[in-house]
Amino acid sequence: MVKAWFFDEKIANPREPCQLENVSLEVVEALGCKLFKFDAENKEDCISLKKIVKDQNYNFQDEITVSREKLPEYEKKVKMFLEEHIHDDPEARACLDGSGYFDVRDKNDKWIRILVEKGDLLIVPAGIYHRFVPDLNDFIVAIRFFEGNPVWTPINRANEENIEKMPIRQKFLATLL
């Protein structure tokens, strides 16, 4: 089962677990995140994965391998993934192999770390501050799902003065009330 906890910001290396107290999956789901399990070994024939894809209206997908050997400009990309940001669309990732961390901000602006491992599918809602980092294994293979044309453009919190006024951010905040 997917595991989540509050992120310890005192730990220098964000690829470490940086674990404080555990967070229930109900808390993560209350933020609008959706968590699923699927059969990563049989992804092509996995009925539960096909159902999720259909129910979420995903019509585009690709596969990404995040590792030093496979991802060009690995350190630059990992640094980019670690930038706190939002998207106009949900971010959906199904872990086929390896593991990594998605960090999401809770309603009190605290980081909650979500460990994704082989067979986990996480959907992060549009408008929530989040980031991704590989764990100490530096290896994850994931399917990225999209509804419509794929959009990879992050809206970085540090670079956007009016991010809190953006309609997608306001829509997300309204779901927390």
TrEMBL record:
Cofactor(s) of this protein: Fe(2+); Ni(2+)
Catalytically driven reaction(s): 1,2-dihydroxy-5-(methylsulfanyl)pent-1-en-3-one + O2 = 4-methylsulfanyl-2-oxobutanoate + formate + 2 H(+); 1,2-dihydroxy-5-(methylsulfanyl)pent-1-en-3-one + O2 = 3-(methylsulfanyl)propanoate + CO + formate + 2 H(+)
Pfam families in the record: ARD
Main location: cytoplasm
Listed GO CC annotations: cytoplasm; nucleus
Pathway: Amino-acid biosynthesis; L-methionine biosynthesis via salvage pathway; L-methionine from S-methyl-5-thio-alpha-D-ribose 1-phosphate: step 5/6
EC number: 1.13.11.54, 1.13.11.53
The keyword Magnesium is annotated on this UniProt entry: no
Gene Ontology MF term list: acireductone dioxygenase (Ni2+-requiring) activity; acireductone dioxygenase [iron(II)-requiring] activity; iron ion binding; nickel cation binding
Note describing how the cofactor binds: Binds either 1 Fe or Ni cation per monomer. Iron-binding promotes an acireductone dioxygenase reaction producing 2-keto-4-methylthiobutyrate, while nickel-binding promotes an acireductone dioxygenase reaction producing 3-(methylsulfanyl)propanoate.
Alphabetical keyword list: Amino-acid biosynthesis, Cytoplasm, Dioxygenase, Iron, Metal-binding, Methionine biosynthesis, Nickel, Nucleus, Oxidoreductase
GO biological process: L-methionine salvage from methylthioadenosine
Residue positions binding Fe(2+): H85, H87, E91, H130
Binding site for Ni(2+): H85, H87, E91, H130
Entry function: Catalyzes 2 different reactions between oxygen and the acireductone 1,2-dihydroxy-3-keto-5-methylthiopentene (DHK-MTPene) depending upon the metal bound in the active site. Fe-containing acireductone dioxygenase (Fe-ARD) produces formate and 2-keto-4-methylthiobutyrate (KMTB), the alpha-ketoacid precursor of methionine in the methionine recycle pathway. Ni-containing acireductone dioxygenase (Ni-ARD) produces methylthiopropionate, carbon monoxide and formate, and does not lie on the methionine recycle pathway.
Family from the record: Belongs to the acireductone dioxygenase (ARD) family.
The name this protein goes by in its record: Acireductone dioxygenase
Source species taxonomy: Eukaryota, Metazoa, Chordata, Tunicata, Appendicularia
